[in-house]
Amino acid sequence: MLLKRHSDKVDVLKKVPLFSGLSRRHLDHIARAADEVKAEAGTVLTRQGGLGLECILLLEGGARVERDGKVIARLGPDDFFGEMSLIDGMPRSATVIAESPSVLLVIEARSFRTLLDTVPGLERKLLVTLCARLRAADARLASTN
Ligand code: CMP
Predict the structure, then answer these.
(1) Using CB atoms within 10 A as the burial measure, which of 10, 13, 72, 120 is most buried?
(2) What DSSP designation does 82 have?
(3) Are β-strands 95-98 and 80-81 bridged in parallel, bridged antiparallel, or unpaired?
C-alpha cells in the first residue's frame, strides 16, 4: 500500500472501524496527523517498559503482543495499539512485534491527544476496544486458574 495523496489516506481511514462514521472534516484531521510506515516481520513496534511516543494503527499485516516474553494477544488489520501509554502516561505495558511485513499508520502522542479531544465519539470507540481487551484478558486469567 502506498498512500501518496491525502485523499488516499482518507479513503483508507474511513474503512477502519475505529474511525467509521466520522465526518470528512474529522477524517481529514486524522489523515493529517497520521504517517504511513512500513515494517518488516520481526520489527519491534513498541517495547515493554519503554516510553510511549505514538499510537499505531495496523493497516496491513499482523503483530503479536508480548508481556514478559509471553504472547498475550495477536493483532491484525484495523487493530490499533500503543494507546495505553498515551492515555495514562505510564511505560509501555507490552512489547508489540510485527509478525509479517506490515503497513502502519503512526500518530504521535500530541496529535493523538488532540484527536481524542476534538473528534466526537473517538474516546468512546477506544473505550469499547479497551473493554474487549480487558474481557479477553479476564477470560484467559480465569481459564488458567
Ligand atoms: P501501550 O501500553 O502504550 O503499549 C503496548 C500496547 O500493547 C498497549 O498500549 C496496547 O495497545 C497493547 N496491548 C497491551 N495489552 C494488550 C492486550 N491484552 N490485548 C491487546 N493489546 C494489548
Answers:
(1) 13
(2) -
(3) unpaired
DSSP assignment letter at 119: S
Q: Is the CB of 96 under 6 A from ligand 1?
A: yes
The preferred substitution site among 46, 53, 127, 144 for testing ligand 1, maximizing ligand atoms within 8 Å of CB, is 46
Is 93 near ligand 1, meaning CB less than 6 Å away?
Answer: yes
Residue to probe by mutation, ligand 1, list 96, 127, 130, 138, most atoms within 8 Å of CB: 96
Q: List the chain pLDDT tens, one digit each, 145 residues.
A: 678 789 999 999 999 999 988 999 999 999 999 999 999 999 999 999 999 999 999 999 999 999 999 999 999 999 999 999 999 999 999 999 999 999 999 999 999 999 999 999 999 999 999 999 999 999 999 998 7
